[in-house]
Recover the amino acids of this structure.
């Protein structure tokens, strides 16, 4: 496995947990403090719009806690099984936008459904209180 870079903050307990898990799995990494590598970190934040640590850089990709992995074990599996896409960047971006639009549409659909349930409950309760 190619060496990875991990952007961390000294006060980030989750960063410590991730580093321990990487070490436990014999995955070599270079730690980069967001304070020490401030310019690099600012570029990453500008690119991803997520100032979240830990952020992992591997094979020209950024993996961000909560967005791309939900646990140290999930990150380890992601890194071990990662394969670079055979598609060009414009094709990848187009597919990501379609997926993003789908997910947003589904979220709004669920929100609409919940609001309708709340509205029905309110109307039912109001009807009962006027009896």
């Amino acid at each position: 496995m190619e060496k990875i870079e991990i952007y961390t903050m000294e006060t980030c307990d989750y960063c410590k947990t991730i580093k321990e898990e990487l070490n436990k799995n014999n995955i070599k990494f270079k730690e980069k403090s967001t304070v020490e590598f401030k310019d690099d970190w600012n570029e990453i934040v500008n690119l991803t719009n997520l100032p979240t640590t830990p952020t992992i850089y591997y094979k020209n990709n950024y993996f961000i806690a909560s967005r791309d992995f939900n646990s140290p074990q999930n990150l380890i599996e992601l890194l071990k099984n990662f394969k670079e896409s055979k598609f060009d960047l414009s094709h990848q971006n187009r597919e990501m936008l379609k997926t993003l639009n789908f997910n947003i549409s589904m979220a709004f659909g669920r929100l609409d459904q919940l609001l309708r349930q709340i509205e029905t409950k309110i109307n039912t309760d109001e009807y009962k209180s006027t009896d």
User: Anything to note?
Assistant: The longest helix spans residues 89-129. The first strand starts at residue 4 and ends at 8. The chain has a mean pLDDT of 93.
